[in-house]
Amino acid sequence: MRIRATVAAVSGALALSALAVPAAQAAGSHSPSHDAVQQAVQSVREAADGKSAYTGSTGEEGTPYQLSATFSNVKVNGGKPIVVGTTNVVTVPVTFTVTHGADVDLAAADTYLDVELYRGDFELPDNWLLGPDWPSCTDVSTTKANCTSSIEVDPSWDLLGNEDATTWKADGYVVDYNDQDPLADDIDYSKVGYAEAGDLASVKLQRYSKLTVNASPEPVKKGKTITVTGSLTRANWDDFKYHGYTVQPVKLQFRKKGTTTYTTVKTIKSSSTGSLKTTVTASVDGYWRYSFAGTSTTPAVNATGDYVDVQ
Fold first, then answer.
1. Class of domain 209-308
2. pLDDT band for position 49 (cuts 50, 70, 90)
3. Quick one: signal sequence residues (predicted)?
4. DSSP tag of 102
């Protein structure tokens, strides 16, 4: 059974809403709150998962019937990784298309649709992100609509851990309550239409990285030694602090004064604490920086160049 404890899902996420005809309907048009409906949808999921499949226009007593609705063209953050630090809320754009049967009214006040991000198995996710607001959709035909939404990942509120720095997938659902109150205790689920699909798109969630550099002495005589230090750190979602990213290859690069391109001089590795240190010989005026190419869990980052005057 696909179980999701919606009360544990936190603010960051995706949530889609009803379409207006012919213009896009603004988010928040439904009277129940988004959070309340998200929790109510969990009950629909459980009722639907009670059967391996459901057929026909109406389901058996207590089991939602299969709604004619599918998702396509789902894009999260334009396919780019979502990079999250320890404090700032990150807002990520989401777009998708819903194709539905002519008898499905996405603009109805009792119809809800949503797109979420989940990590792990679709049937029993390890974690997921859903959104605080309903999105907007615009009809492009009588059976197709294009939708826009956003995901807000708040590291201080969302239940993130370092294990969440990995690939996430998107799923979507449409629920038609057919004139029933989604928050009622006596819902007849056999009159509720439901459609859901997982693995609609994938996106990486990464831990924000920082890189510093300091080249000294400044100024320095030509031919003398320049010592270049720095540190490579990244967000830790277990304690919401920054810790050294250890034993990682980092490039030392140089840009001559009056030019715009950095050239790699050497590659070193960060220490067991994330610190960086190496030496070079002073030759001409210019800027020194460290450059980190990134990993699957951590984005690439360049330090701001440190200028050294060679005399």
1. mainly beta
2. confident
3. 1-26
4. T
Does position 26 have pLDDT exceeding 60, yes or no? no
Are 173 and 194 in contact, with CB atoms under 8 Å apart? yes
Q: Which residues contact 183 (CB under 8 A, 6 or more apart)?
A: 32, 36, 37, 40
Pairing of strands 136-141, 144-153: antiparallel
pTM score of the predicted model: 0.85
- Which of 12, 30, 20 is closest to 146 using CA atoms? 20
Rounded to an integer, what distance in angstroms lies between the CA atom of residue 65 and that of residue 215? 67
List, for residues 213-243, the tens digit of each pLDDT value.
Answer: 999 999 999 999 999 999 999 999 999 999 9
- Asked if the model's pLDDT at residue 107 lies above 80, the reply is yes
Q: Give the per-residue pLDDT at 29.
A: 55
pLDDT digits (tens, 9 = 90+) for 108-129: 999 999 899 999 999 889 998 9
Answer for the pair 306, 287: CB distance below 8 angstroms, yes or no: yes
Of 225, 286, 237, nearest to 127 by C-alpha is: 237
| Tokens matching residue 142 | 């009588």
Q: Do domains 6-207 and 209-308 have the same CATH topology?
A: yes
Enclosing H/E stretch for 120: strand 111-120
Tell me if 10 sits within 8 A of 154, measured CB to CB.
yes
Higher per-residue confidence, 186 vs 98: 98
DSSP string for 190-247 = GG-EEEEE--S-EEEEEE-EEEEEEEESSSB-TTSEEEEEEEEEEEETTTTEEEE--S
- When the candidates are 3.40.190.10, 1.10.10.10, 3.30.70.100, 2.60.40.10, the CATH number that belongs to 6-207 is 2.60.40.10
Task: Please say whether the beta carbons of 283 and 220 come within 8 A.
Answer: no
Calculated CA dihedral for residues 245, 248, 254, 255, nearest 10 degrees: -60
Domain definitions of the chain by residue range: 6-207, 209-308
